[in-house]
Amino acid sequence: MKIRPLHDRIVVRRKEEEEKTAGGILLPGSAKEKPNEGTVIAIGSGKILDNGEIRPVDVKLGDVVVFGKYAGSDTIEIDGEELIILGETDIKAVILT
Question: How many angstroms separate the CA atoms of 66 and 93, rounded?
Fold first, then answer.
């Protein structure tokens, strides 16, 4: 199934949760924190400005982005995969490779 977000919204596939800490301690499921990084898999057409023009979204497909810890309360499941719908303002940075 495909998805196309509207306006300045972005669909992100969250990075996998860490199984162990940097020190090598294995984490049980309840102690794991959801990562605040993910890959952009769909973007909307852009923000509609007051004068009617559309300003394109600042990220592109495939970008790895960092978003706020409490951002992404809008989650959906498509083909058994949990995806996050974010507003462009919820994205804090793009990780450059």
Answer: 5
Look up residue 73 and give its two tokens: 């309360």
Q: Give tens-digit pLDDT for 2-19.
A: 888 888 899 999 887 656
3 state SS of 66: strand
In this structure, are residues 42 and 63 in contact, taking their beta carbons and an 8 Å threshold? no
Q: Where are the domains of the chain?
A: 9-15+34-95
Residue entry with tokens 């306006």: 7
Architecture of the domain defined by 9-15+34-95: Roll (2.30)
Give the total residue count for the chain. Answer: 97
Note whether 41 and 11 are within 8 A (CB).
yes
**Residue 32's CB: how many other CB atoms inside 10 A?**
12
User: How far is residue 81's CA from residue 20's CA, in Å, rounded to a whole number?
Assistant: 22
Lowest mean pLDDT among 76-80, 84-88, 90-94: 76-80
Give strand pairing partners of 77.
Answer: 82
